[in-house]
Design brief:
Helix 2 packs across helix 8. The protein is globular. The strands form 4 sheets. A 5-stranded mixed beta sheet has the order 10-9-11-8-12, sandwiched between helices. A 3-stranded parallel beta sheet has the order 5-1-6, sandwiched between helices. The protein has 9 helices and 13 strands. By secondary structure, the chain is of the alpha/beta class. Bound molecules: glutamic acid. The site of glutamic acid has 13 residues, from helix 5 and strand 11. Glutamic acid binds next to helix 5 and strand 11.
Length: 287
C-alpha cells in the first residue's frame, strides 16, 4: 500500500511538472521572452537549438559553443532579456528541428535553418539574418565536378532533413547516388576517405568544414552556388510577438555593425565571403 502511494505521488509530481512545462512554454509564446521569464520556464533561462558540428556556425568544443549562429543567438537573446549565462544550448540536427520546436525541446533555433514554405506549415520563422547558397565540396584534385549538372554516376553525400538533400532529389537526381548522413561533418569525413565524390550543402557550411585542420588542403569548394538559402530563426507556430522582437533585434544587430563583425570573425581564414547582393538581408514580416 505504502509503495503504491509513493508511486502514485511520483506520478502526480511528474504530471504537475509536465503541466507546468506546458504552461510556461505558452507564456513564452505570448511574448514572455522579453521579460526574461516565461519562455524557458521559472528559471528564466532559454533553450536555444544550434548545430554542434558545423565549425564557424554552430560548434561545440568542450562546454564552449562558437560560431556565427551561436553569436547571433547570443545577441538576440540579450535583446530579449536573457544574458549569455541564461542560455541553454541544445543540439538541433537538421532532421529534428521542426519536431524540437513543436515539442518544446527548444524555444528557438539558430542552426543554418533555411526559411521554406514547407517548414512554415509547422513552425514560424523570424529573419532572415543571413543568406547562403548551396554548393559542392570535392577532393582537392577533382576536376570533373563543376556543378550540380556534372554529378551523373557520382556518389554524393548530404544530410537527412536538409534543403540540400531535398534539392538534389527534386532537381539533380538523375544518375546520382545520394548518401544521407545525420551531419555534414560525417559527409566530409566520407569525402576525405574517398567514400564519396562530393558533399553538398550551403557554401558557408562547406567553407567552415573545409578550413578545419583535418580537412585543409584535401578538399575544395566548387564555387557555383545553385540555390538561395535564407537563414531564419525557427520559432514554435503562433509566435508572432516573439518573431517581431527577434526581427527588431536582428535589425539592430545589422545597423550597429555587429553583424559584419560577427561574419568577419567567424569566417576568418576560410576564404569565404558572403554574397554581397543578398547580405545583410532585410527581415520578412512576421506571420
Ligand atoms: N540551410 C539548409 C537547411 O536548412 C541546409 C543546412 C542545414 O541542414 O542546416 O536545410
Amino acid at each position: 500500500m505504502r509503495k503504491r502511494t509513493t508511486a502514485l505521488l511520483a506520478l502526480a509530481a511528474t504530471a504537475a511538472l509536465t503541466l507546468s512545462a506546458c504552461s510556461s512554454a505558452d507564456v513564452g509564446n505570448q511574448g514572455g521572452a522579453t521579460t526574461g521569464t516565461g519562455t524557458g520556464g521559472a528559471s528564466g533561462s532559454i533553450k536555444i537549438g544550434v548545430k554542434f558540428d558545423q565549425p564557424g556556425l554552430g560548434f561545440q568544443e568542450g562546454d564552449k559553443h562558437t560560431g556565427f549562429d551561436v553569436d547571433v543567438a547570443t545577441y538576440v537573446a540579450g535583446k530579449l532579456g536573457y544574458s549569455a549565462d541564461k542560455i541553454q544550448w541544445v543540439e538541433s540536427p537538421s532532421a529534428q528541428r521542426e519536431q524540437m520546436l513543436q515539442t518544446g525541446a527548444v524555444d528557438m533555433i539558430f542552426a543554418t535553418y533555411s526559411i521554406t514554405d514547407e517548414r512554415k506549415k509547422v513552425v514560424d520563422f523570424a529573419g532572415p539574418y543571413f543568406v547562403a547558397g548551396q554548393d559542392l565540396l570535392v577532393a582537392q584534385d577533382n576536376t570533373d565536378i563543376t556543378g550540380p549538372d556534372s554529378l551523373e554516376g557520382k556518389n554524393l553525400c548530404s544530410v537527412t532533413g536538409s534543403t540540400s538533400a531535398q534539392k538534389i532529389k527534386d532537381k539533380y537526381s538523375k544518375g546520382v547516388n545520394l548518401l544521407e548522413r545525420p551531419g555534414y561533418a560525417e559527409c566530409v569525413t566520407a569525402l576525405v576517405a574517398g567514400q564519396v565524390d562530393a558533399v553538398t550543402t550551403d557554401d558557408i557550411i562547406l567553407a567552415g568544414l573545409a578550413a578545419t585542420p583535418a580537412n585543409k588542403g584535401k578538399v575544395k569548394i566548387v564555387g557555383a552556388p545553385f540555390s538561395t538559402e535564407r537563414y531564419g530563426v525557427g520559432l514554435p507556430k503562433g509566435s508572432k510577438d516573439t518573431c517581431e522582437k527577434v526581427n527588431d533585434a536582428i535589425k539592430a544587430m545589422i545597423d550597429d555593425g555587429t553583424w559584419q563583425e560577427l561574419i568577419t570573425k567567424n569566417t576568418e581564414g576560410t576564404g569565404y565571403t558572403p554574397n554581397k547582393d543578398e547580405n545583410p538581408p532585410a527581415q520578412d514580416a512576421c506571420a
